[in-house]
Design goal:
Oligomer: homodimer
Mean pLDDT of chain A: 96
Largest interface: A-B, 65 and 65 residues
Distance between the termini of chain A: 40 Å
CATH architecture of one domain in chain A: 3-Layer(aba) Sandwich
Number of helices of chain A: 18
Helix content of chain A: 25-40%
Strand content of chain A: 15-25%
CATH class of one domain in chain A: Alpha Beta
Largest sheet of chain A: 9 strands, mixed
CATH topology of one domain in chain A: Rossmann fold
Radius of gyration of chain A: 26 Å
Chain lengths: 681, 681
């Protein structure tokens, strides 16, 4: 604890594993028998050292414990609580116990007993009572354990299939009002709500829609689960806020319903690992990791939270590939560069597992900065350097990233990969559009010195003076289509791609944008079926690694900005708006790989009047400028194993002119920072 | 060419794209109209500069050409030649042309016309006629284009399904002699051979066996295709040897039948990229890449060839992620460290594509060391440094890697991932065993300073004095089981894992090894179904990331070396043999992630009397020692983005004692070399 404080830390987190404290049903040990389980002594010590604590009483812990920290008797004595996937299989990995169904009544009953026991103990030590406990974390990485062990839960008892008062039927009726409306939307012929079974998607015309609704229901049931846990804890004396960590950036938006329901009461953050073992994509915090970091932080910001990373790697589950001090340094600084405002290390110090409870060995090491015997490892210095950097530059967490291009975050699309029924009705799928936003649009932007930021399309936080990219697959929510029209009326420059939506979220024809633009009934947009030679702004034959959306019969008022030389059809075209804004159809989906992709984006940004905030001479050096008032911190990232060099010029919001910062030489895997303010420049 | 020669090069390769030389059927241009197509001028120039040439006349080229270098008229005018996968779909990627069926008679007819045209032109310039052409390459990365575009070919006309004289029926009859034998093996009831259709695997009891045979047939048909191409070229004057490149290490063993058929006439090599775009696993030549390099070179060596990498990256298809000089340097040196004996760069110089033929842009750049306008890029120096290193140390390509542990290469298992019908009959599948060999056994060995080498179980090249690991899934060929017994009789130490085979290659009971070991009828081996606490040699609770195979009723003569603390059953046990050898059952499949995995392997090697050739103090620094006579080159690899340090001690075959080499500091992504000989040590 002292080493943590010396490293700039102020808040510890600790698990309180149910399976260890209640190893036999009804028999609890909080240190009475085994001193290793003395939670209160731990909390008191933290208080004495002057640290806050996040307590994580579960039910789930994970942390490489047997049964993920649940008591073994739970699955053994109450088999009915097991999670079951769409195909009727138990959620389990072959060599471990079955996972549970979160809202199963028996599981909730046992959980309540546990939380009623531990909550009063923790409650004695909350900050309001002069103790160390500042936050409680219900459960852990909610939903992850199910996804990784067979899929999301369809336990019929929990979900209430076939029961008019069951959760799922009630959800559907609430959403669509009646079985008639449901039949209309699904193009089905259910006699009543009890016949609707999301496991039998072949009973409806567009299984994908039913699956989409089920996932929305699933995310709602996560919010129910949180409500239950928080209610039990509050009823039993917990008077501090709650926090929770999405298992990874790809799961952040599964918590949208939770945010709607619980608001500020539950601060949602994320976990940002770059490697936990050799099956991870990368050994190091690569640029691909930076993209993930960026979209994750942006999602959390849009949810209304200071982007907090509850599991910023302190080490790794695996000894190999190694977690090195240099890699961690680049990881931490790129997270802060890309918007992080709070963090916790997973883990800061290792230690012995309670006998028989660990799965990795009898020591939980995790390559932590402080080893299980208190040994100080080289990564400790990295943690300390980062802590001191943040102490010295506290203002940076208040600062926001300056941006050049706004991307209307496609919330629903980001979850579409969870719908495990394919959709043949859509030429451009929601998931491929979201993949494109990350691997194409954002990655190209970062290579091309265009700083991207997300915004909520249906909100007021849109900067009307900056171009707005609206990602769209073949369908787009009606209200989003309406909002695009509203923004066009306000003079915003809107770029839309990879296609133009002609359907709403229920896959019914919806041509609000097309109609506003005056596109005729003869207008068509479709992906190229033959190789396209895509040419725009003098850049010929741009490698199109995804699809080129070609438009037919665009209006005479439209100006062609890019076309396919083979078919002679346009894929980029513009319709200037009366009030100075413009609508640009940008019909290409790609993943970033060619310089031509950057040139195409740069040329489009220049056309939209964007003069980018930071300019480099090396596409492989990525930058971020965090500014508050007239003070900025420039982060210059080299996330490669080779040295990189670049010239840099910046134009921060507080400066009228460009500032040349000169030549930078960056060692492999390094992030440099430069403090900038009018007086310093 | 002069720059290439200066960089130590002696042999160029060039494509001769059919689609460009015969853009209109029957109309050829070899420079008569378009000087860019003057192949002979190119060959003459090479001769003048003093370089050899590999000519690649196709039919397929790939090289990011439209239709992969085939003439567009081919697919357009002769749709019957298209490849078709098992599900009846054309082999194609959505935005390009359909791929062809290699042995379709119409495709062969058109190919023959093309080869009859170009072969005499090339033949004028072979080395035997004083010209530059030293090798011909038929086709390119055979099979890859089908796999990547929908799967291997099942074109019914080409394969002859339902035709007693068709290729596939003839193959089956040749393999199994009669329809009765086939019915017996497949447990089916076909009336005659024309009823056997590999697309309908549900007609047999073990679809997996039928699929396995189909893949063997497919590899045979690749050999037929090579025979055809080579025959046409030889008939038309080509008098030099032929070469071919497997698309990647995972495809090397698809050429086993080709090697059996063509022997020395066709030198098979491989392609060793570490990144062609952001969808590749790694941006850099990581340790995972080194493992791939190692098994690929070992496969080529066992096939009887000097391991030759025909496409060692000179650049990358994509501009991003970038190919840097430092990464390439580490890539080249780790390839040579791990057994490479010959190489060619893909590509050395870029240039303009013939108008309308490129898919990446109108320039084929590939981030090559020499740009399309002749500009010299930083990677040129890397190529040159490597060339000069090889010139200076020519003896290194004659040297072989010293090894500590022999692994009996599971040839058939390495292809099992191509059988796209799952196999429920096998507890341990062939593919998971092969995955384990790479990700578990080899990776752990490299981390633990144990130098692994492959050997052919059914050959004489086994070193009887070194331990031999024999990978086995639930089945193992009868002749391999017999060979294991033969080797045990010769006193070899055999380690078998992850399981003990109780079936032969036709999934019939076959307990040759078990019988020889005296295992009783009560003996059982099965994967753990509950979490195991695997403990061996004082190492407790080893994380078992795959499966632990537990044995029941082992004989009294067996010594337990490792057991599961939960079930109390052994997973490692040994039966000493009369002649000094031993049989060790090593029932664990893992992927390398924990230090305990290394400790377990080291402890086992020590038990087998192995004193490893190279010892380091850093598991992340991998080494290779190539020795010929009393001269060795030590390669010390740091394939991370962070610096690494280590002490090194070696015991080369020419030295009776250990030699301390002292302390090494390795920069990120670097490979150091050290020349060693008795006089120098």
């Amino acid at each position: 604890m002292e080493l943590f404080k010396e490293a700039g830390g102020n808040c510890l987190a600790t698990y309180c594993p149910w399976g260890i404290h209640e190893a036999v049903e009804g028999v609890f040990d909080f240190g009475e028998k085994n001193p290793q389980l003395d939670l209160e002594a731990f909390l008191q010590t933290a208080r004495e050292v002057g640290l806050y604590v996040v307590c994580r009483p579960g039910p789930y812990q994970y942390s490489e414990l047997v049964y993920n920290g649940l008591p073994l008797w739970l699955g053994g004595n109450y088999p009915e609580i097991k999670g079951i996937n769409r195909r009727g299989e138990f959620l389990s990995d072959p060599s471990s116990c079955h996972q549970i169904s979160y809202l199963h009544p028996v599981f909730l009953e046992k959980t309540k007993v546990w939380l009623e026991k531990i909550s009063p103990i923790i409650a004695k030590h909350t900050v309001h009572k002069g103790g160390a406990v500042a936050f409680l974390q219900p459960d852990n990485e909610l939903g992850g354990i199910q996804l990784w062990n067979g899929g999301y839960d369809y336990n019929p008892e929990t979900m209430g299939f076939g029961n008019a008062h069951g959760r799922y039927p009630k959800f559907l009726i609430k959403k669509y009002t009646s079985i008639e409306a449901i039949n209309d939307i699904y193009n089905a012929s259910f006699k009543d709500i009890t016949e609707v079974d999301p496991r039998n998607t072949e009973t409806v015309d567009i299984p994908y829609l039913m699956e989409k609704d089920y996932f929305e229901f699933y995310c709602n049931h996560m919010a129910d689960y949180f409500e239950f846990l928080i209610d039990v804890m509050e009823t039993n004396g917990i008077d501090v806020p709650f926090v929770h960590n999405s298992a990874n950036p790809n799961m952040n938006s599964n918590f949208m319903e939770t945010v709607d329901r619980l608001g500020d009461k539950l601060l949602i953050g994320s976990d940002h690992y770059y490697s936990l073992n050799t099956h991870w994509e990368q050994n190091n915090p690569t640029p691909q990791y930076a993209v993930k970091t960026l979209f994750s932080n942006e999602m959390l910001r849009l949810m209304g939270f200071p982007p907090t990373i509850f599991e910023l790697p302190g080490g790794s589950l695996s000894d190999w590939p190694p977690i090195t001090a240099q890699d961690l340094d680049a990881c931490y600084l790129s997270n802060i560069a890309l918007g992080m405002k709070g963090h916790n290390y997973y883990i800061f110090t290792g230690g012995p597992n309670v006998k028989g409870t660990g799965t990795t060995s009898d020591i939980y090491d995790f390559s932590a900065p402080i080893g299980p015997d208190g040994e100080i490892r080289p990564t400790y210095q990295t943690v300390k350097d980062f802590g001191l950097f943040l102490q010295k530059n506290e203002w940076v967490v208040e600062a926001e990233r300056e941006c050049d291009l706004q991307i209307a975050m496609p919330w629903e699309y980001t979850r579409a990969k969870n719908y495990d029924v394919p959709c043949t009705q859509l030429e451009e799928s929601a998931d491929s559009t979201w993949t494109f936003v990350r691997e194409g649009l954002m990655t190209t932007s970062l290579c091309a010195d265009i700083s991207p930021a997300f915004c909520n399309l249906n909100s007021d936080d849109i900067d009307l003076g900056k171009p707005l990219y609206v990602p769209s697959c073949s369908y787009l929510e009606r209200k989003s289509q309406e909002q695009v029209v509203e923004l066009l009326k306000k003079g915003v420059t809107i770029i839309m791609g990879p296609t133009l939506p002609m359907l709403d979220e229920l896959f019914k024809p919806c041509t609000i944008i097309a109609d506003y633009l005056g596109l005729s009934k003869e207008f068509k947009i479709h992906a190229n079926t033959k190789p396209a030679r895509a040419t725009t702004g003098g850049i010929s034959n741009i490698m199109n690694t995804g699809a080129v959306y070609l438009s037919e019969n665009i209006p005479a008022s439209a100006r062609v900005l890019g076309h396919d030389e083979n078919s002679e059809l346009p894929f980029i075209w513009e319709i200037p708006q009366k009030n100075g804004g413009r609508f640009i159809m940008f019909g290409m989906r790609w993943f970033h790989s060619m310089n031509e992709h950057s040139m195409m984006m740069s040329s489009l940004m220049a056309r939209c009047g964007v003069d980018t905030v930071v300019k480099t001479t090396n596409a492989n050096v990525w930058t971020a400028l965090r500014t508050v008032g007239d003070k900025s911190m420039l982060f210059i990232m080299n996330l490669y194993s080779s040295p990189m060099e670049t010239e840099i010029t910046i134009r921060p919001s507080w400066s009228d002119s460009e500032i040349e910062l000169g030549h930078f030489k960056l060692p492999p895997m390094s992030v440099e920072t430069r403090l900038l303010s009018p007086s310093k420049s």
